[in-house]
Amino acid sequence: MSHTSSLGINAFMADLMAKNPAEPEFHQAVHEVVESLNTFLDENPKYKHARVLERIVEPERIIMFRVPWVNDKGDMCVNRGFRIEMNSAIGPYKGGLRFHPTVNLGILKFLAFEQVFKNSLTTLPMGGGKGGSDFDPKGKSDNEVMRFCQSFMTELYRHIGPNTDVPAGDIGVGGREIGFLFGQYKRIRNEFTGVLTGKGLNYGGSVIRPEATGYGNVYFAREMLKTRGETFEGKTVLVSGAGNVAQFTVQKVNELGGKVVTLSDSSGYIYDKDGIDDEKLKFVMYLKNIKRGRISEYADKYKVKYVENERPWGEKADIALPSATQNEINEVEAITLVSNGCMCVSEGANMPSTPEAIQVFLDKRILFGPGKAANAGGVAVSGLEMTQNSMRIGWSREEVDNRLQNIMRSIHETCVQYGTKDNEFINYVDGANIGGFVKVADAMLSQGAV
Ligand code: NDP
Ligand code: 2IT
Predict the structure, then answer these.
(1) Ordered domains of the chain (ranges, CATH)
(2) What is the mean pLDDT of residues 272-287?
(3) Catalytic annotation on 130?
(4) Which of 33, 126, 233, 258 pairs as cysteine with 119 (C-beta 3.0–4.6 A)?
(5) pTM attached to this predicted model
């Protein structure tokens, strides 16, 4: 990086931080992209002249709203709702909704920003957006969740639509919540359309959408491993989280002959040296999706180790697939992973590795797949759900899975194209950031002052 360029990055970041104070996750996500793009922008001055970077970090629109609802005891409650409509250069805004008490503007802006590049990488025509609420679904009854979702949609419906903005799930938003949200949209608009993805199979959902993020991440990791003549067969794998992404990650790793030894939630992690086989995974799915209990109950049932308030990265393994939340692998944990022989980290979650952790992975030249490439399978199959809704047909499992595998291979190729360095090392971070940027930036250039 040249002296002037690094000054340029510092000045750009200082402006961004002054204009968007108290949003550390947003600053982190932008800084990574700006660093990756630095040389590319020097070599392609048309983007600089058109101030594409300055525009791409500015959301096209932000909607913030009050979500009042009444709990089972009859008490009035109020939460804050958000939708960040980040970029529509290549298609309608597209991205998930997160319901979690930590949700705030900065977190959703980081997620919406990353979504723009991720969606571009999928090759499908989807812009970027993200939304959600600081509502905490934990401990709430189905009826409370329903009333919250109905209130949330009673405001959101006026801002979204199948050709405008198409939300989906994320942390705390799964099939149950999408059903309630869809039902309310349909009542208010008197319209049955593909306004949300992740819908149930009996009302317009796509096969493989629940599986897609986890499966996609394993397919992406498989492509990375292939570049070193490796496969999942016989490998020991650490997975964090125990939700949607983690569950289907385990399922696909098992299918490819690997052994997953950990899962976690916000209370701690379990370590099962024999591996979480398909039978045990069934129990995890019941525990997390129906009983809505804690992962510690797995340790009680199968008599394995449970470590409270810790993350699984101290355990020895060949591959790590973080699938819980942002900044869940720090520098020390990254060093531990690598010194324990970990050869591949592929991000099922969004931004699970801190910048310092990523630097460790890159310095040690292990295979590192950043979330915006590795976890794009979820939104990719959301895009396929939109296509099926428009065509008013439903594809078979085989059809959708083949398309998902092709998309993940194509994302890997894009990373190789833009991320291969002179010494042949593939920097997937640069590859994903530059590869994702080009399509969106060119569309913005074509469309003028947008
Ligand atoms: P779920 O709500 O199904 O599961 C989230 C899991 O992560 C739970 O086990 C949860 O534990 C844990 N978790 C959440 N927040 C924290 C936290 N602050 N600290 C520790 N653990 C936490 O969400 P998903 O599986 O859908 O999402 C997981 C990750 O994958 C997120 O980063 C999401 O953005 C990303 N992602 C999701 C996609 C999708 O299609 N769903 C697509 C692409 C990325 P607990 O139950 O205790 O809260
Ligand atoms: O982060 C993500 O890509 C998602 N939560 C999925 C978004 C989507 O629209 O399917």
Answers:
(1) 61-193 (3.40.50.10860), 212-369 (3.40.50.720)
(2) 98
(3) yes
(4) 126
(5) 0.98
